[in-house]
Design a protein that fits this description.
There is one protein chain. The protein is mainly α. Helices cover about 75% and strands about 0% of the residues. It is built from 18 helices and no strands. The radius of gyration is 20 Å and the shape is globular. It starts with a helix and ends with a helix.
């Protein structure tokens, strides 16, 4: 399970961790605006969307060990290219490449393996441990990366040269590349070639098309869209800390890195609560909490006196987002999707659920660039409020539908 958890986070470290933890430095080193960085992620989202469904079908037919290890090595190769600090066109190509390598042969096999590991009664625990462990891996590696950043910047943080930023970001990229390749080796060594689960009930259709007629599946997809949008919102907290909380680049990166240690706590706690109560109840509470927190953040104006309140709100929102992300796939078991179609179901949910990879960064970048200062962040939080309410509504309808049966 350790290798699965570690690989499950490292596969996404190059496309997402660098921008999440080191956004101000990344923007300066690559000479990008928020809008440009958001648009660069667009081809990732398109290729990922095209990969989820066929990748899910492959997961139901082929060895997870081979699929996942190849994905990790292919993703690491992109990190080597990124370390040369390519121009914007090269970055478009790179993120398109990662859209395929991180999803097509990896995502559904991982989710399927975790569902099988969790059995009938421990889905919350299984998915909570997966995302909690992934969060611990992300936090630990980001702490090492913050150390690399500090060493590259030296002692004078007020006079950082362009060369220092480029050197720092290159070191961080190579660090994540190394860990991604190492995860590929771990998967190849430790994950067995599992058996392919087939449906043996002759009275139920075996075609994946039956899943498209299941309203529960579509409601789950809406829940994932909403939760994943909140997760994408975390990528902008380091920039917000620099712009409004009087932090420098190193302090902001350290803040987000330290906050990411809440992920194992939130995910595992949510997983245990899901097994005791239900996934729908815990997810509904999390969305409600996020709507309140984002509303407060949209209203608060920064000052020395209330910065502590703002930081507290940010930290609680980290916790709630991590709780959501840790358990939303536990709904696959709660809604009784056939085990033999798990990979396909996850593929369908993910095609819709991870569309924020297509639009969220471009939208957020334009909101911040076109509305400089506090108004941009207020609009940003309005968007997150809307997604929280959409997710809450979908969860409510999923509970109603379940109670009618």
């Amino acid at each position: 399970m350790f290798s699965l958890i570690f690989a499950g986070e490292m596969i996404f470290s190059l496309p997402f961790h660098i921008a999440r933890f080191f956004r101000p430095t990344l923007l300066d080193a690559f000479n990008l605006t928020n809008t440009q960085l958001g648009d660069i992620v667009f081809p990732y989202g398109i290729l990922a969307m095209l990969s989820y469904f066929p990748g899910g079908m492959l997961a139901d037919r082929f060895s997870a060990r081979k699929l996942m290890s190849f994905s990790l090595f292919a993703t690491a190769s992109g990190g080597i290219y990124m370390s040369f600090i390519p121009g914007i066109n090269g970055l478009y190509f790179l993120f398109a490449w990662w859209g395929a390598t991180t999803i097509f042969l990896f995502w559904s096999p991982m989710i399927k393996a975790v569902r099988e590991w969790g059995g009938d009664n421990s889905q919350g625990k299984a998915f909570g441990l997966l995302d909690g462990g992934r969060g611990l891996a992300a936090a630990a590696v980001s702490s090492l990366a913050v150390f690399v950043l500090a060493q590259s910047f030296g002692g004078n943080l007020n006079e950082i040269s362009d060369e220092q930023r480029i050197s720092a970001i290159r070191g961080i990229i190579l660090l994540y590349t190394l860990f991604t390749a190492f995860a590929g080796i771990l998967i190849w060594i430790s994950v067995p070639d599992g058996k392919i689960i087939k449906q043996n009930n002759p009275h139920k259709p075996r075609s994946p098309l039956i899943l498209l007629m299941d309203r529960n599946l579509w409601l789950q997809a809406i829940i994932v869209v909403s939760a994943y949008s909140a997760y994408k919102g975390l990528d902008y907290y380091s920039l917000y800390a620099v712009d409004f909380l009087n932090m420098n680049e190193l302090q902001a990166s350290a803040f987000v890195s330290n906050a990411s240690y809440l992920r194992p706590v939130g995910a595992i706690a949510a997983g245990l609560l899901v097994d005791k109560f239900s996934g729908k109840r815990i997810i509904g509470i999390s969305f409600s909490l996020l709507a309140i927190l984002y509303s407060l953040l949209s209203l608060l104006t920064t000052s020395r006196e209330i910065n502590l309140l703002i930081i507290s709100n940010l930290l609680v929102s980290f916790f709630a987002v991590y709780a959501l992300r840790g358990v939303y796939f536990a709904l696959v078991e709660e809604t009784k999707i056939p085990t033999g179609l798990t990979g396909t179901a996850v593929g369908i949910i993910s095609v819709i659920g991870y569309t924020p990879d297509v639009f969220f960064n471009s939208l957020a970048g334009r909101l911040l660039d076109n509305n400089p200062g506090l108004p941009g962040y207020q609009h940003f939080y309005y968007v997150l409020i809307a997604f929280s309410l959409i997710g809450l509504t979908a969860t409510f309808y999923l509970r109603i539908k379940k109670s009618k049966h």
